[in-house]
Specification:
globular, alpha/beta, single chain, 15 strands, 451 residues
Length: 451
């Protein structure tokens, strides 16, 4: 019997939880009441990144965050889910849920902030987990939301006068950030090191044993570091560097390779695309200068990170290889427009279409890196470059970068969206699955003589 699939529209996101090691959101559906709210895994909400970001801002407001990220907070997105909005009483229930849903006849009251009549909740029916959670949320909001209303009105006034020309559905509004640092394991945190020193934030890729492949959790951690740097008044610039022989070998596709079936593969692919999208939202529109210290090979997404930076410096061991076409994939990270602009159409097409690799000398001649430093003095030379950059006032740096990127901002969201859609579609094809499983491990391990 074929399961009927319908399109439902998400109205609001109420709560977030970790269930069986996976992130889930409690959502309400347009046209249905609160009692029909359901817990949905994050992979079902790929197109709802703006609603997730809005929910995170409301539950954990970040002082000093850019006000324009609060725009378009009322938007809803359509997602494809199965019809699981109601459950009949004949369904099996766990022992804990059976006790949870026992009929009760009590009255819960709470005082409101402005001294008006208290809220009263009468329960004379079997209460579901979702209804109880919504009730508790309303009680909490009755004590807190009135106090926040004035602040949000003030923010809206700032938004209306904000002079950055973003596209109506700008990429900034679609950030999906996980600001709960506890969700990242200690192991993943050790793969990305960060520290603020001498006026700049240093982000160090530390996945040395795997040639600095970037896992989905590492993407989220880097995204989190950039977001904090954006609002930190002590940070004038960001330095992205790495330990080991490689700068970055690109995305770690191990979860896709180890997927047990097509369903798990699709789920892992969707989560990967969401993580890449969140990082690109931070990286491409980051308001402060970004510097890349490319000490070795930069492969796949590593090239995109270098291209998105304001300054990049290499050594004699530096080389660049996109790899996307070799895996049956299309590029991401605004590379389809940014790379030809930097290195010229001829070199860009050879990298995009044929996966041609270029060394540091060619990259320097074409403008992909700003200079080539010696291997023994590389860190010292990078420190001097950062010192020269951080003596400039922060407002001058931000204003200059804003002027340089002014005409590109309106197209970044559109092009990045198209790139990610193509990437997501291709990564699900049989050809790409086969190449990732069979060829990807060898592509990210260059021969010693090439490093």
């Amino acid at each position: 019997m074929q399961v009927e699939r319908k399109i439902f529209e998400v109205d609001t996101i109420i709560c977030r939880r970790q269930h069986c090691g996976k992130v889930q959101y409690l959502v309400t559906w347009k046209g249905f009441g609160y009692s029909s709210a359901t817990w949905e895994p994050v992979e079902n909400l790929v197109s709802c990144a703006d609603l997730i970001a809005q929910f995170q801002r409301q539950t954990s407001p970040i002082p000093g965050a850019n006000p324009f990220i609060l725009e378009h907070s009322g938007k809803t997105k359509k997602v494809h889910v199965k019809m699981l909005l109601t459950r009949k009483g004949g369904h099996k229930r766990t022992k804990s849920m059976a006790a949870y849903n026992e009929p009760v006849d009590t009255t819960c009251q709470t005082e409101t902030l402005n001294g008006s009549e208290p809220l009263t909740f009468k329960k004379k029916h079997n209460i579901t987990e979702s209804e109880k959670l919504i009730r508790d949320t309303l009680i909490h909001e009755s004590k807190t939301m009135e106090r926040k209303k004035t602040n949000y009105n003030k923010i809206n006034d700032i938004i209306n006068n904000f002079d950055m020309n973003l596209s109506p559905n700008g990429l900034i509004q679609k950030r999906s950030l996980n600001r709960n640092s506890q969700s990242h394991s200690i192991y993943d945190k050790n793969l990305v090191l960060s520290s603020v020193q001498n006026g700049y934030l240093q982000i160090t890729l530390n996945n040395v044993d795997r040639n600095n492949l970037i896992t989905p959790n590492m993407l989220a951690i880097i995204c989190e570091c950039l977001h904090r740097a954006c609002k930190n008044p002590d940070v004038k610039a960001v330095l992205i560097c790495s330990n080991g022989d490689y700068f970055c070998s690109g995305i770690d596709y191990s979860e896709l390779v180890n997927s047990s079936d097509d369903k798990e593969y699709k789920s892992n692919a969707s989560k990967l695309v969401v993580a890449i999208k969140s990082l690109l939202a931070e990286l491409l529109l980051f308001p402060k200068p970004i510097v890349c210290a490319v000490n070795g090979p930069a492969l796949e997404l590593g090239v995109a990170i270098v291209a998105a930076s304001d300054f990049a410096y290499g050594t004699s061991k530096t080389c660049f290889d996109l790899l996307y076409c070799k895996l049956g994939l299309s590029p991401v990270g605004y590379l389809s427009k940014l790379l030809p602009k930097i290195v010229g159409n001829s070199m860009a097409l050879s990298m995009l279409y044929m996966g041609k690799r270029y060394n540091a000398v060619t990259a320097y001649d074409r403008g992909l890196i700003s200079d080539i430093f010696g291997l023994n003095s590389f860190q010292e030379d990078i420190s001097k470059c950062m010192a020269n950059l951080t003596v400039v006032s922060m407002q001058a740096l931000i204003s200059t970068k804003k002027l340089l990127n002014h005409f590109d901002i309106s197209r970044i969201e559109e092009i990045c969206g198209e790139e990610l859609n193509c990437y997501h579609a291709l990564i699900l094809t049989k050809e790409c699955k086969s190449k990732i499983k069979e060829e990807w491990p060898s592509l990210v391990s260059l021969p010693k003589e090439d490093i």
